[in-house]
Amino acid sequence: MSYFIDVILPIPLEKEFTYSVNKDEFVFLKPGMRVAVQFGKSKVYAALVTKIHQVAPLVYEAKEIEHILDESPIVTSHQLELWSWIATYYMCSKGEVMRAALPSAFLLESETIILKNDKITVDESILKDDEFLIYEALQHQSLLRIQEIMNITGKKTVLPIIKRLLEKEIIVVQEEIYEQYKPKIVRYVKLHAEYTKEQALQSLLESLTRAPKQKEVLMHLFMLESKNNKPIKISELAKAANSSAAIIKTLIDKDILEEYQLQVDRVQFDGDSSTLSKDLNTYQEKALQQLRTCFLDKDVCLLHGVTSSGKTEVYVKLIESQLEKGKQILYLLPEIALTTQLIKRLQAYFGEKLTVYHSRYSVNERVEAWNNVKNTTSKAQIIIGARSSIFLPFTNLGLIIIDEEHEGSFKQFDPAPRYHARDTAVVLSGMFASKVLLGSATPALETYYNAMQGKYGVVELKRRYGNVLMPDINLVDLKTKYKKKEMTGHFSDTLLEAIKDALRENEQVILFQNRRGYSPVIECNTCGHSPQCPNCDVSLTFHNHRNQLRCHYCGYHMAMLQKCLACGSTELSTKGFGTEQIEKELQELLPDYNIGRMDQDTTRGKHGYEKLITKFEDGEIDILVGTQMLTKGLDFRNVSLVGIMNADNLLNFPDFRAHERSFQLMQQVAGRAGRTSKRGKVLIQTYNPYHQILQQVSVNDYTGMYKDQIEERHQYKYPPFYRIIKITARHKDYNKVNAATLWLAKSLRMYFKEHVLGPEFPPISRIRNQYHKNILIKIPQGQSLGKTKEAVKKVHTTFKSVRDFAGVRIVINVDTY
Ligand code: ADP
Ligand code: ZN
Ligand code: ZN
User: Fold this and answer.
1) Which of 276, 283, 288, 308 most suits a substitution to test ligand 1, by most atoms within 8 Å of the C-beta?
2) Atom 26, ligand 1: which residue's CA is nearest?
3) Fewer CB atoms near the end CB (10 Å): N or C, the chain?
4) What residues flank ligand 1, with Cβ below 6 Å?
5) Measured in angstroms, how far is the CA atom of residue 630 from the centroid of ligand 3?
6) Per-residue pLDDT at 330 exceeds 80
7) Ligand 1 pocket: which of 277, 282, 319, 465 to mutate (most atoms <8 Å of CB)?
């Protein structure tokens, strides 16, 4: 009898792969466990078992597995099902999904290790210098890793050396698998069992009279024990008794104290979680009841509530009901909105039950969160996280909340799987017959359309909490302002006066500009030349603070020019402006106030973002200038004015979602103003004050925006009426990209006729020396998605076999965002 397993390998392979196992392994293995297997020449991977069977593969001979890595499945059957769905829907391999889904500690890969060949005697004189260095190191060390060889030789490319040593039979290589996850062990102490009896303890203490330090430690141990009845860490005891580890060790050696170890979670909440959730006001209460009713016959409901209407408090009530039922809750947020502000707020209600799953957490922390979810521990009953938290091993999901559901960052752009977390969450929820709540002040058109069609339920919350008025939004016409010379730098007199008014009242100001750096274009006044990135088709952005020109696409940078590279003229001028320039102008205009800047450049370090927010909250910053980072889920009490420095570059972005996006962005930024009693003020500077979107923003007319935009989408055949698959070809050779995309478009037209658009270069056609060219396939309602994707796959497969196109990378993006 032969026994086999099918596995997913964490690499972009079209199919699952079959390996052979012995009978014991056959009995032991279950889907969802990992096994170490060899694939390719010598590489070893952790592969995930999907099926255990007795059917030998037809076209290759199954290799044996190396060994089994898990005692029990680490992945659930629901997850495997979800992975399959993602792979099929988003047209990628299950291996790619696996890579995105598993915390990297589970994705162990092999590492090449180099050993001495003991079977031969070496004639040292035949060795070159670098070879000798390695040979010598192996006399002292049993094995070497690639990194160590790099260090020893001081070279980055060490493979040639290793190859030569192999040929001379001086070394052998092996693949070694290593586990990255290490449980965190904490050492504790307690009194040895022998002394728990009163009498024994008495005589022990007497015997210690001549060792006062040891006695002191014991007394502190008793004090700590009586104080909080929890296991006592060795470190904690040492600190409390102001004693050294050596004395504690003596006590352990004398069997007076007993050491024991426990495995603990790295992230522990030990704050106060006694806060009761807030009583809802009438509007929130009504919305909550409507949602509950809605969920009786709808699986997905939209809570469309204006900014600061108190949506979060409504979510909290729904979470409470799920907790009572013992269900798990997933709270999804765009990465950027994962602020300590919101987390603190939820922790105050839910304490330990809340787990944050965050890319900023370490590999080990992620594994612990994973295990807690999988084991349905009370610690991970509520998971809050960004898009990748949909991959957690839920066992008992009751509700998924997707806050700021309109956010584009729920869609993964690169690498595959290019999934949309909101849409995937709906599928995930279906597996548990649970519910999905989508929350937003500015829902995505697709979502609102689904609600209008009756596919999703919808509940409105039109008032801000505490009857605070919606901010008063006004447009400032830059054309007139410039003509009348009422501009100072990039500030109209209107905006500047409003800023001064707010500051005079001790209120804070937020200014939004969606570009970072000082100015995005430098131009020579004499010949018109402007410095470009050598790797990308974009102009370099001037960063004043570092006196550098930088590319925002590839990171290329150079010192700011003293003179024009083309003609040598020293008259260079800057065009356009970013956050840095606004900050600088403000410092000159208002030297007595503190200006802060929040963009990618100022929030780099681990806590950079948090620090800025705290400073602003504490009033150490009067005016905060920033990019979209400012928009998401922030709740500042004292901001009375929001200024949008230039609305036009948002509106003019070449994308069919640009108008929708601009509306959302501006409404969200505006929503940061006047969240308490006083009515907030918003000023939008623009050259097009009569632009329909700006008019709609200024009167908070979501419905009007929706109607216009949905009409346009219909007319121009865009989502939600048509689905879109975008195919991008990338290569460093311009002509190759052209030829490849022409071929692709022609082949696709045979299937999809006029529904194929392009090929067309995107606005930035070269990034990191790679040319990009796009083809869009539009899929009308009613056309089978499955068949469409099959046809695309077929074309792609043929494409791969065309010799001329070797090396051209094809990226398929389903439901492109
Ligand atoms: P949204 O998520 O809709 O923007 P939030 O939930 O952040 O709104 O609420 C806005 C502000 O109003 C917050 O500071 C919040 O603490 C407060 N708030 C909302 N609902 C209540 C309530 N029922 N009782 C007391 N304060 C509330
Ligand atoms: Zn010049
Ligand atoms: Zn570049």
Assistant:
1) 308
2) 278
3) N
4) 278-281, 284, 305, 307-313, 465, 635
5) 26
6) yes
7) 465
Q: In ligand 1, which atom is closest to the CA atom of 312?
A: 6
Residue 190 DSSP SS3: strand
Q: Which ligand is nearest to the CA of 540?
A: 3
Report which bound ligand comes closest to the CA of 555.
3
Asked whether residue 495 falls in the same domain as residue 634, the answer is yes
Asked, for residue 241, whether it belongs to a domain, the answer is: yes
Task: Name which residue leads in pLDDT, 675 or 450.
Answer: 450
How many angstroms separate the alpha carbon of residue 592 from the centre of ligand 2?
39
Residue 360 maps to a domain = yes
Query: What is the pLDDT confidence band of residue 250, given thresholds at 50, 70 and 90?
Result: confident
- Please give the pLDDT value at position 133: 87
CA of 689 to the centre of ligand 3 (A): 34
Q: How far is the CA of 569 from the centre of ligand 2 (A)?
A: 5
Instruction: Identify whether 635 is part of a domain.
Output: yes
Same domain, 675 and 595: yes
Ligand located closest to 767 CA:
3
Q: Does residue 401 belong to any structural domain of this protein?
A: yes
Residue 54 CB neighbours (<10 A): 9
How many domains are there within the chain? Answer: 7
In 454-593, beta strands by DSSP E? 457-461, 472-477, 487-488, 491-492, 508-512, 521-524, 541-543, 548-550, 557-559, 572-575
**Per-residue tokens: 165:** 């040593």
Q: pTM score > 0.90 for this model?
A: no
Q: What is the DSSP letter of 109?
A: B
Q: Is the pLDDT of residue 538 over 70?
A: yes
Residue 309 CA: nearest ligand 1 atom is 3
Task: Please tell me the predicted confidence (pLDDT) of residue 606.
Answer: 67
Q: Give the nearest ligand 1 atom to 307 CA.
A: 4
> Per DSSP, what are the bridge partners of residue 177?
110
Is the C-alpha dihedral spanning 692, 696, 697, 702 positive or negative? negative
The band of 132, judged by pLDDT with boundaries at 50, 70 and 90, is confident
| pLDDT single digits (tens) 628-655 | 888 766 778 899 999 999 999 899 888 8
Residue with tokens 């006695």: 215
567 annotated to a ligand binding site: yes
- 578 with 307: CB under 8 angstroms? no
pLDDT tens, residue by residue, 63-95: 999 888 888 999 999 999 999 999 999 999 999
State how far the Cα of 700 lies from the Cα of 781, in Å rounded to an integer. 31
Position 214 scores a pLDDT of: 86
Pocket test for ligand 1, best of 312, 341, 668 (most atoms within 8 A of CB): 312
Please indicate if the annotation marks 554 as binding a ligand: yes
Question: 536: annotated binding-site residue?
Answer: yes
Closest CA to 598 of 336, 386, 332, 360: 336
Domain edge (last residue) among 447, 466, 485: 466
Find the 701 Cα to ligand 1 centroid distance in Å: 22
Question: In the prediction, which pLDDT does 153 show?
Answer: 84
Confidence band for 675, pLDDT divided at 50, 70 and 90: confident
**Out of 142-156, 285-299, 440-454, 737-751, which region has the weakest mean confidence (pLDDT)?**
142-156
Nearest ligand by distance to the CA of 461: 1
User: The CATH number of the domain where 780 resides is what?
Assistant: 3.30.70.600
Q: Calculate how far, in angstroms, residue 284's C-alpha sits from the geometric centre of ligand 1.
A: 10
> Which ligand has the nearest atom to the CA of 462?
1
Q: Whose CA is nearest to atom 10 of ligand 1?
A: 308
Query: Ligand 3 mean position to 741 CA, how many Å?
Result: 23
Q: Which residue has the tokens 């909490």?
A: 465
- What is the helix, strand, coil percentage profile of the chain, to 5? 40, 25, 35
pLDDT at 769: 93
Q: Containing domain of residue 332, as a range? A: 282-466
Q: How far apart are the first and last CA of the chain?
A: 51
504 plus 539 within the same structural domain: no
Residues 329 and 248 in one domain: no
Give the pLDDT band (50/70/90) at residue 117: confident
Q: Both 309 and 444 in a single domain? A: yes
